Structure formats: C-alpha cells, structure tokens
Automatic annotation (TrEMBL), chain B:
Belongs to the metallo-beta-lactamase superfamily. RNA-metabolizing metallo-beta-lactamase-like family. INTS11 subfamily. It is found in: Cytoplasm; Nucleus. Residues 16-229 form the Metallo-beta-lactamase domain. It comes from Oryzias melastigma (Marine medaka). Its cofactor is Zn(2+). Residues 245-363 form the Beta-Casp domain. Its main location: cytoplasm. This is Integrator complex subunit 11. The keyword NAD does not apply.
Length: 381, 594
C-alpha cells in the first residue's frame, strides 16, 4: 500500500535526475523543514530545483487529506550542462554538482528569502581523469565546508570550499574508476570502485588506505555499487555491495574482506544509474536502476551462503503511471533516496521526469487494504 | 516609441482581488473587477482612484471585461458600476452573464442579511449592473468601437471562463483570467491560437507550485469517502453550487457505478436545479466527452445522486451530502454540519479555500470547540479533511500557454517578485522575451514596435526595385526615401516629384558653395588638372570629368579654380553642390582642404 505524489512529466527539460536530501531544517526556510534538491541530466541546459515537500508528509497519522499536496519550488537555477552527481553540504545552503563529463565541480548557493534563484558561486578543480568519467562527491561540514571528490581511486582529494585548498589526497596504486564516495564518520571515508574494490581511509592521516578486494564472485564485466549505512542504532557501520548481476554482499566496516551475509537479488534488465541505499534506521536496503521499479529488501533474512532473496516491497508507481500514458518509453528509475527522519518514506525520480514521494508498509500488516485499490476511468488525464 | 501600460489594482501583495487596468492605443480597459473575500471593509474592493480621483469612471474607461463568475474576479462589479459609477459596456461570456448575478446576490444576502452590513450594493444594483453587460461568444471578434476589438477564448477552469484578446490597431494584449491547461471531467483545457500579442497577462499565484497528479489526488479522496461509508459514517462536502461541485459529482457518480455502492449521495436543493440547468444550457462550454455522451444521457443527470431534503440528515446509516455554501459559513451546509459534528464516524471534506472567520477556516486550523449563536458550543468530533480540487495553471501551465500564444512580452500579476525570479529566468531563457512582474498599484509600460501598413505608389516601387539589392525581407529593414501623404486614415508613400505634383508645389533647389584656399604656384588650369587626377585616383567608381569649360565635375558637384588678384600662388577652389549630394560634397571639401 502506498501513497504517492507524482509531478507530471516535463518533456521539454529532459530527465530529472539525482536527488540529494537535506532533511535538517534551515533558518532560511521558514516553516516546515524538509526540502529536496533535484536536477536534470539532459545533455544541454538543465534546471536545479529546491523543492519543498508537500505538507501532507508532515500531517499526523489520522489525517489522510491535508492542506497541500503539491510540491513548491522554493528555489530554482539553471545549469549549463547535465548534472550527474549532486550533493548538499550539510549545515550550509550550498550544493556541489558534477556534470559527468569532467572532474571539475560546480558550487551553488541555494539562496535565502531575498531571492528564489540558485546561483553558481564557484567551482572546484578536480584532478585529470583519463577516462573522462564524472567525479563522485561526498560533502562534510566539519571543521569547515569541504568536499571529497574524484573520478578514480587515484584522484580522490579533499578540497576546502572557501579557500579551494586541497587538504588531502588518497594515495593508491591503481586508478580504479569510482562508483561511490561516502563519509562514514567525521573524517573516515569509503571509496567504492566499480570493479568491486573498496578503499577505507582517514583524511586526517597520510597513512595508506585499507583496501578490500572485490567479492570472489566478481568477473571481468561485472560492475559494483556500494553503500555504507549510517544507522546510529547499529553497533558498527555496515557496507553493502551490489553487482550488475544482482549479487549483494553485506560486510561489517571493520571486516571488509568478509561477507557477513549475502543474497542473489532478482534484478532484471540493464543497469543504468544504479542506486543501492541503506534505510536510515532499519536493516533494509533499497535498489533501483535496473528497471522502472524501486525494490526494498530485508537483509535480516540473508545468510552467509548465497541464496535468492525476494524483495520485501516494490514501488511500481513510476512504471504504472507511464503505462497509462500513450506512447511512453519504458520508464527507468534514475535516483532514489530515503527520507532521513521518516523511516517509511522514500523519494524516487524517473526518466520521464516524474518525482514520487511514497510510503511503504510491510506486506503482512496490510494485506487486506492492498487489494481494494479503487480504479477510476483513465481516459482523462 | 508607442507603449502599452498595465496596472494591477489593489493594495499590497494580496491575492484575490483581480482587477487590472490596461492602456493600449489610447484606450483604457479594466480587466476583471474582483472582491477580496478576506476583508470586511473597503480593502475588499480594488482601489479605483487609479482610474480617476473622484467621480464616475465612465469617461475614463472604454470597456470592462470580466473573465469568469468567481467572486474574486467579479465581486466588486456592482459596487464599481453602481456605487462608484460606470455606464459603459461590460463584456463577459454568456454563461458568466447568467451565473454572475446569482452568485452576487447570494453573496450580498450573506453579507447584508447575516452580517448586517450597510454600505453594500443592493439587489437592484446587481440588476442595473447586469443591464450593462454585452455577452461574448467564443472566437468571435467584437468591435467595442471603431478602433478597439476584443475576442474571447476558452479558458477551462469553470463554466464560461474566458481568456480575452484585446486589439487596438496593430497592438494587442491577451488577458488570461484564471485558466487550466489540463482538461478535467467536465471542462476542457484552455486553448488559444498563435495570436502573438504584444503582452500576455497571466496570474502567477500557483507559479511556484508543481501540482500533484490529479489521479493520485482523486484516488485519495475516493478512498477516504469510501472508508467513511464502509464504517457507517456520513460524509459532508460543503460546496459552492457551481464550479468544482460538478467535477466532484461526476467523480463520485463514476466511482459509485464502478464499485456498485449503495449508500445514497445527495445534492442540496436550491441552487442544484439552477446549476444543472446552466450546464445543460451551456453544454458547448463543457468538454468533448460530455458533449458526446449528451446524446445518450446527460452527464449532469445523475443516477446515484439525488436531491436532498432537510429531514434526510437525521436518517440512520451512511450517506454523502453535497451542501451549499462552501465555507460552512451559513445555510444548509452549516445546519448539517451542526447535526453531524458530534459523531467521530462522520467526516467533512472541505474542497477549497476557506476565508478567515468562517467555520470552515476554523475547523481546518484544528479548532475543535466552536461557539455558535446563543452561546452554545459545538464539539467537533468528526474527521475534518481538506482537499483542493481547484483548477489553476502552475509553472508548467504558464509555459505551455506562452508556447501556444507566442507573446512578445510576458506579464505576471499576483505574485511576490522575490519568489518569481526563477520563473522569470525560465521564461526569458526559453522564449527570449521580457517578463514583467508589477506589484499592485505599480504601472508597467511595455514598449511595442507596431508595424504601420502603408500604400506605396507603383513608380516609387519600380524605382526602388531598379536600385537592385536584396529582395524585401521583414527581418532586414531597408531604408528608402519618399514622401508620406496622410489623407483621412490612409497612408501613402510616393516619390517626391509625385508629391509635389499632387500638392501643386514647386520644387526648390538648394546649392551649397564652399571656398577652399590653397597655395599652388602652378597656373589655374594646371592646379585644376592636378586636382582632377588626385580625385580620380582617390574616388574610383565615381564619375569624374574634366570639362573643357575649366571645371571638374564629380558626379554633379562642380569644382572651379581661380586665383587671387594679389597673389598668383594663392588659389581659391570653389566647390558647389546641390542638397542631394551633401555627403559627397562635404567629403570633397575636407579632402581638398588637406
């Protein structure tokens, strides 16, 4: 059972893409907290939008219908090129983007009350990358706003935003293309390579990073994506690696070489813009990028031996609304993110420009309700 | 440069009191004349002192145009025409003309009878005001006078809502009123042709919103209604008789049919018959689907929705009731609400905006104990829900409309400038047109570049064509010389000779003479020859002749040399040219001076 809002597709501005959630309230946004940044990655001009989520999300349990169901564009800006990676710098009104064509980053100020325009305030130089890949980005606010970025494991650096000074560089032997870059602690970060290798390092020390080789099942053409959990309730950080063939491996951050548990996920389709993400407060991971569906899995059912694992829940909203539109290409999920405070809520974007904010409920509790979906005439949009 | 002036009226940045003044080609037009529902004093009316400080408005306005029957667009009309004073024509579509007086009267009754106001327009004033109305048909050009013409386009939104195209000479403005770019169950979407107005004026209230999908909204609404019915509760939906009510009726009727539900749905009497009557009467204003099914059955004759009787409210069991008025401020909906408020199985769904002070507004803000007349308190235990089904255009809708009409400039009203910069940027980037956002009371002057059609004489045309050069191209202006004759209202471009002949004038010739002194020991004729050769090398492509009478001619310019009586070396060059060769003449004189 789910409640979803979708924004009608904007066919002219290309695809809506990466999502970065700033869940914390900011003084410059009065009233409700919770805004989301969304940007497009079509090949030419794109829009960056800071959207205020509908008030409906903040309604109490009993109230089904609420004052506002619509997204509000709080701030908007224009990007000359595609936005392939977008990160919000916590504690600030800044976002950092990368266009996927080079390693340089663009810095933007979301703006405050005086204007609704997101302005470009600067850029960060990245190290040259032979492969012409875009950089991955991770942002931190302590001690001062800084970004960790790079396209390969050999070109990861930490740059302070105000001064542009490079504070740290990751030293590795090989230049493995990166699929993720994430802070797991104040200064500790995990770099996930597309070949399945992981590097764990601390920006405060020049010591060599810890390298974890790819899982044994990895083959030549297999690509891997990584996510590290940040659940304060768990004793330690867990890391999940997902391959393009659907093999998912969970490890403890302190024992990266070992698989704590694993599963074979039932993913079909060509992977593109894959996101694998831990739920903020549960043992669940969400997966998107193989099709028009977002799937949620419960890792508590996984064992050390490899077995098939069915998803706990599937959000089909994007695929379904697309089918109901004539002449629509099969839709693909381009990004999704968990709401940092509401454990049942996720946000997903798709290639048709739709943005969904939806709740999921575990099937057992709601079996009755999920069957009585009313259907309405579809001929009028 | 000619310009069109636009002034949105009203005080402050408030939404809800639509009234815009436009000055175009010497004509003054008032677009909409709305009332602000939130105020009880004069602030609810637009500030007409912008038109004139005192006295009647008739002499200062050429016409008034009303876009649709919502009170925030026509609520101040009787006040303006009868109490401030205006006797000129008031234009609106047929449905608007039929429905407007009903809503105005309803509103008047509540304001005067219930609230006891005195300085308000009377029933007679409403009637007198409506006598000044001239109805419009869609897509039909109406001549207000011999210079001003207007045309109405379909706007969706509510029955009879129109967008208006206003034209004076070759300048034009389109005003949208409220419009909707997506069709709904009983109305179509707004449509306009590529009329390329100088200015497109649109409301921007919802411009920063991205609307949720209608399907999800409807599904949620139906789910809530269904749940209440299933547990035996009663659902009250307060509505205004005309507008969203019809949309919700069709939605519920369809749902009831599909799900085979048996609980009764009622629509309160009074305005119901009139409403259905109008929808049947103006069937051409509804959408295509309704018109198509009209042959088999009338979409507004519902199988599952029946007329309500007061006594039904006490019937046991579940039911859904649509009752007027919409904000629970009086009348039947309030009576029913009082009866059902105490039971938590029941539900009230507010389908639209509620003005401050009304019960609707209070309960939406969470108030659960209400004070009624006679000091009685009412405990509100039923579920209170809000669902906005209003049909307005959001940012995407505005962009779509601009794409359709292709205006030269865009003007947005009723938004806060600081919150509109992004939309302004979007419009400027995508369409390369200027976007204006005047505050209430602020006048914006938009420069226009009208083209003036002029007849040209054949002789002149032939002469121009003979000069060669690129063919006439609207994108590359080409200048030419001629004389413009204005006779009555026709303009004619002719050659100078023809003009002189027509006006029986003689042509005057103007010749300039210039003396240049130089030192040259040679004889006069040698000096002249030197000048001749020099000019010949300098001015290639020009006809330069050395004539036997001792002059040099450059085109038609004459150069003579003479020497001073006292000093044979002091030569005087005499240059003489006619007015037409002014440029060449001055060029020569400067060359020779060196």
């Amino acid at each position: 059972m789910f409640i979803s809002w979708s924004i009608p597709p904007r066919s002219s501005s290309g695809h809506l893409g990466k999502v970065s959630e700033n869940g914390e309230s900011s003084d410059s946004i009065t009233g409700s907290d919770g805004t989301v940044c969304v940007a497009g990655f079509s090949s030419s001009k794109n829009e960056l939008l800071e959207l205020r989520l509908p008030l409906k999300l903040f309604a109490e349990e009993n109230k089904g219908l609420c004052a506002e169901r619509d997204f509000k564009v709080v701030h908007g800006g224009f990007s000359e090129g595609p936005v392939s990676c977008l990160r919000h710098v916590p504690g600030t009104r800044l976002i950092v983007t990368n266009d996927g064509r080079g390693t340089d980053l663009q810095v933007w100020d979301l703006g405050g009350e005086e204007s609704d325009v997101i302005r470009r305030t600067g850029s960060v130089k990245g190290m040259e990358s032979a492969s012409k890949r875009g950089s991955r980005i991770a942002a931190s606010a302590s001690p001062s706003p800084q970004v960790l970025h790079g396209a390969e494991s050999s070109s990861v650096q930490l740059t302070q935003l105000t001064s542009g000074q490079s504070l740290y560089k990751l030293e590795t032997d090989s230049a493995d293309p990166l699929n993720s870059l994430q802070f797991t602690g104040d200064a500790v970060f995990l770099a996930g390579c597309s070949n399945g290798k992981m590097y764990l390092a601390d920006t405060r020390t020049p010591a060599a990073p810890l390298m974890s080789p790819p899982p044994p099942s990895s083959g030549q053409s297999v690509v891997w994506w990584t996510d590290a959990s940040a659940d304060p309730q768990q004793p330690s950080c867990r890391v999940v690696r997902l391959s393009s063939s659907g093999h998912a491996v969970v490890s403890d951050l302190r024992k990266l070489g070992e698989a704590a548990c694993q599963a074979q996920l039932d993913v079909h389709g060509r992977p593109d813009n894959v996101t694998v993400s831990w739920a903020p407060r549960r043992n669940c991971i969400s997966v998107s990028g193989f099709s028009g569906v977002v799937e949620i899995y419960d890792t508590r059912d996984w064992r050390t031996a490899l077995r098939r694992a069915p998803p706990l829940f599937q959000h089909r909203g994007h695929a379904v609304s697309c089918q109901q539109t004539d002449g629509c290409d099969p839709v693909r999920i381009t990004a999704h993110v968990w709401h940092p405070e509401r454990p049942q809520t996720l946000l997903s974007t798709a290639s048709d420009g739709s943005v969904h904010v939806w709740d999921w409920v575990e099937p057992d509790a709601n079996r009755l309700e999920s069957q009585s979906e009313p259907s309405i005439e579809q001929d009028q949009k | 440069m000619p310009e069109i002036k636009v002034t949105p009226l009203g005080a402050g940045q408030d939404v809800g009191r639509s009234c815009i003044l436009v000055s175009i080609g010497g004509k003054n037009i008032m677009l909409d004349c709305g009332m602000h529902m939130g105020y009880n004093d004069d602030r609810r009316f637009p500030d007409f002192s912008y038109v004139t400080q005192n006295g009647r408005l008739t002499d200062f306005l050429d016409c008034v145009i009303i876009s649709h029957f919502h009170l925030d667009h026509c609520g101040a009309l009787p006040y303006m025409s009868e109490m401030v004073g205006y006797d000129g024509p008031i234009y609106m579509t047929h449905p608007t003309k039929a429905i407007c007086p009903i809503l105005l009267e309803d509103f008047r009754k509540i304001t005067v009878d219930k609230k006891g106001e005195t300085n308000f327009f009377t029933s007679q004033m409403i009637k007198d005001c409506m006598k000044k109305v001239v109805p419009l048909n869609l897509h039909q050009t109406v001549q207000v006078d011999d210079e001003l013409e207007i045309k109405a386009y379909y706007a969706g939104h509510v029955l009879g809502a129109a967008m208006v195209h206003i034209k004076v000479g070759s300048e034009s403005v389109v005003y949208t009123g409220d419009y909707n770019m997506t069709p709904d169950r009983h109305l179509g979407a707004a449509w306009i042709d590529k009329c390329r107005p100088d200015i497109l004026i649109s409301e921007s209230t919802y411009a920063t919103t991205i609307r949720d999908s209608k399907r999800c909204r409807e599904r949620d609404f139906l789910k809530k209604v269904h749940e209440s019915i299933e547990r035996g509760g009663k659902v009250l939906i307060p509505v205004f008789a005309l507008g969203r009510a019809q949309e919700l009726c069709i939605l519920l009727e369809t749902f009831w049919e599909r799900m085979n539900l048996k609980a009764p749905i009622y629509f309160s009497t009074g305005l119901t018959e009139k409403a259905n009557h109008y929808y049947k009467l103006f069937i051409t204003w509804t959408n295509q689907k309704i018109r198509k099914t009209f042959v088999q059955r009338n979409m507004f004759e519902f199988k599952h929705i029946k007329a309500f009787d007061r006594s039904y409210a006490d019937n046991p069991g579940p039911m859904v009731v649509f009752a007027t008025p919409g904000m629970l401020h009086a009348g039947q909906s309030l009576q029913i609400f009082k009866k059902w408020a105490g039971n938590e199985k029941n539900m009230v769904i507010m389908p639209g905006y509620c003005v401050q002070g009304t019960i609707g507004h209070k309960i939406l803000n969470g108030q659960r104990k209400l004070e009624m007349e006679g000091r009685a308190t009412l405990d509100v235990k039923l579920q209170v829900e809000y669902m906005s089904f209003s049909a307005h255009a959001d940012a995407k809708g505005i962009m779509q409309l601009i794409r359709m009409a292709e205006p030269r400039n865009m003007l947005l009203v009723h938004g806060e400038a600081a919150k509109m910069e992004f939309l302004k940027g979007k419009i400027e980037q995508e369409f390369s047109i200027d976007c204006y956002m005047p505050a209430n009371g602020e006048t914006v002057a938009v420069k226009t570049n009208p083209s003036v059609p002029v007849d040209m004489s054949v002789n002149l045309l032939k002469r121009e064509m003979a000069l060669g050069g690129p063919l006439p191209d609207p994108k590359r202006p080409r200048s030419m010389h001629g004389t413009l004759i204005m006779k009555e209202s026709s303009l004619k471009l002719v050659s100078s000779e023809q003009a002189l002949k027509e006006l029986a004038l003689n042509e005057h010739q103007l010749r300039f003479t210039c003396r240049v002194a130089l030192q040259d020991p040679h004889s006069d004729s040698e000096t002249l020859h030197r000048i001749y050769t020099h000019l010949k090398s300098l001015l290639k492509g020009y006809t330069i002749q050395h004539l036997p009478d001792g002059t040099v001619m450059v085109e038609s310019i004459v150069i003579k040399v003479s020497s001073s009586a006292e000093d044979a070396n002091a030569k005087i060059l005499l240059l003489s040219w006619s007015y037409q060769d002014e440029d060449l003449g001055s060029f020569l004189s400067s060359v020779l001076k060196k």
